[in-house]
Design goal:
Layout: E1 2-3, E2 10-11, E3 15-19, E4 22-26, H1 29-36, E5 52-54, E6 57-59, H2 62-67
Antiparallel strand pairs: 1-2, 3-4, 5-6
Protein name: Prokaryotic metallothionein
């Protein structure tokens, strides 16, 4: 068993995340997200997906990036889906 670095739970099904040369141990995705996901610089929500990086500033969507003054940011390209 290994102890979660966020909540301290010693859990038989804990897992490791290897990122940027460090090893992190968590007992749940919730704890992993809490520790590792960046926060949107506009609305403060945790960025679980790709997010939008504008000159080193992270936003959850194009909407939040534009609200902070970023230009030319779109949430999606095109009007339909392809298949």
């Amino acid at each position: 068993m290994a102890r979660c670095e966020v909540c301290g739970n010693d859990y038989a099904m804990s897992f490791e995340v290897h990122a940027q040369g460090a090893v992190h141990v968590f007992d749940s995705f919730e704890c992993a997200i809490h520790r590792m996901a960046p926060s949107c610089e506009h609305c403060r929500v945790r960025i679980i997906g790709h997010g939008v990086d504008v000159d080193g500033h992270w936003y959850c969507t194009g909407h939040c990036a534009r609200a902070e003054g970023a230009a030319g940011i779109v949430d999606k390209v095109g009007s339909g889906t392809s298949g």
